[in-house]
């Protein structure tokens, strides 16, 4: 399933359903070693994540984007309800945005609804939306079940 992306005034909402249980999907957001495997746009060749996953804790994500250079941002966790919700403020240089990620159980599948608001302009919003949608695509590939091995 592709991500459903909707733009608002200085905001974006992205919804995607994953074929994995909610605690598993939540785990890929709450563990830095897992997050670095999927976070970032398709052109990200390297991603580093340092995180203190607790309310009041923070994170730093640094990635190298092919042909464009390094990109980094930091953030602070404002609310965490395991395995239902993560709310954080993300700092992109002088701009602070707010992100709400909600995880809804759908009988063994998980609906992730992400709302990101407070962008300085439309272009910045679209860049972050594209990178987020790309990352969710990479996460879907990581969550896909291993192919069945058939013996002759």
In DSSP terms (H or I, runs of 4 or more residues), the helix count works out at 3
* Biggest beta sheet attributes: 8 strands, antiparallel
- What is the string of helix and strand elements? EEHHEEEEEEH
Q: What would you call the structural class?
A: alpha+beta
Beta-strand content: over 45%
Helix content: 25-40%
So, the CATH homologous superfamily? START domain
3D architecture notes:
The protein has 152 residues and is of the alpha+beta class. It has one domain: Alpha-D-Glucose-1,6-Bisphosphate, Chain A, domain 4, CATH 3.30.530. Helix content is 25%, strand content 45%. The protein is built from three helices and eight strands. It has helices spanning 22-30, 32-38, 122-143; strands at residues 4-8, 11-18, 44-51, 58-65, 69-81, 85-92, 95-105, 110-117. An eight-stranded antiparallel sheet has the order 1-2-8-7-6-5-4-3. The protein is globular, with a radius of gyration of 16 Å. The termini are far apart. The mean pLDDT is 93.
Offer a few descriptive terms:
single chain; 3 helices; 152 residues; alpha+beta; Alpha-D-Glucose-1,6-Bisphosphate, Chain A, domain 4
């Amino acid at each position: 399933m592709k991500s459903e992306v909707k733009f608002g005034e200085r905001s974006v909402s992205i919804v995607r359903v994953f074929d994995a249980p909610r605690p598993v999907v939540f785990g890929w957001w709450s563990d830095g070693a897992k997050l670095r495997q999927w976070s970032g746009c398709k052109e990200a060749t390297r991603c580093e994540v340092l995180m203190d996953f607790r309310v009041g804790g923070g994170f730093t994500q640094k990635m190298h984007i092919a042909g464009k250079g390094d990109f980094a941002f930091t953030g602070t966790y404002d609310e965490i309800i395991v395995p239902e919700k993560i709310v954080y403020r993300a700092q992109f240089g002088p701009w602070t945005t707010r992100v709400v990620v909600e995880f809804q159980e759908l009988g063994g599948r998980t609906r992730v609804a992400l709302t990101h608001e407070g962008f300085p302009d439309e272009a910045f919003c679209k860049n972050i939306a594209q990178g987020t949608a790309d990352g969710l695509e990479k996460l879907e590939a990581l969550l896909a079940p291993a192919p069945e091995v058939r013996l002759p």
